[in-house]
Design brief:
alpha+beta
Length: 215
């Protein structure tokens, strides 16, 4: 009799274990679903600046030109602000309008210059060095003379220089691009020697921009 009871208990236990196994296996047959978000689009912003001399409205062409003819640009009114001849100790200031044509906020982070030619030819190294070493360039924000981007010799500026102040320009959102007005104040040293008499250098100035970290 005891043996029969034990067998019954064993059979019952096996039945319970089998039922538990089936119940556990049944969880694998539950309905499932997945949702997918499709057609996601990513558009990159743009960094695009333009720099023109500021003569009331931005006008293409050089900031510094000795005569009106040198400052002329096809399709635009005659320029009205020639520098005249340079001489030791002379300082001339001209404005540059930097416009943000892109969709990202930018900041000016570097400036540079290049001596393109002297007297119409490739600049002789010694003469170019003498000229660059005797010209000082100060760049600052219009109306805020203390916001200086660069102040030093043209010789140093021939290598791109990180700006001391980094002004920000908002992104373009409408018809008119936001702009920043800069002043380039150039001075010929009083110590400039006779080797610079009669020279006609052509210099290009460049402004570099980068997107700001909060874009």
């Amino acid at each position: 009799m005891i043996e029969k009871v034990q067998r019954k208990i064993i059979i019952t236990t096996i039945t319970v274990m089998l039922f538990a196994t089936l119940a556990g296996g049944a969880t694998m047959a539950l309905f499932t679903d997945v949702a997918t978000n499709v057609n996601n689009r990513f558009s990159a912003g743009t960094v695009d600046i333009a720099a023109d001399r500021a003569l009331g409205d931005p006008i293409p062409g050089p900031m510094f030109y000795t005569t009106t003819a040198e400052g002329r640009h096809p399709g635009h009114p005659l320029p009205h602000n020639p520098t005249g001849l340079w001489l030791p100790g002379r300082t001339v200031s001209r404005n540059l309008s930097v416009r943000n044509m892109g969709s990202l906020q930018v900041r000016i982070n570097r400036v540079s210059a290049q001596i393109v030619s002297i007297n119409g030819d490739a600049p002789p190294l010694a003469l170019a060095a003498s000229f660059a070493g005797n010209m000082n360039v100060k760049i600052f924000v219009i109306g805020q003379r203390d916001r200086v981007l660069y102040n030093g010799s043209l010789a140093t500026l021939l290598t791109p220089q990180t700006t001391v102040h980094r002004p920000v320009i908002a992104p373009r959102t409408g018809l008119w691009p936001p702009s920043l007005g800069l002043i380039y104040e150039v001075t010929m040293s009083r110590d400039a020697g006779n080797d610079l008499q009669g020279i006609r250098p052509i210099v290009s100035f460049s402004v570099y921009a980068e997107q700001t970290a909060n874009n």
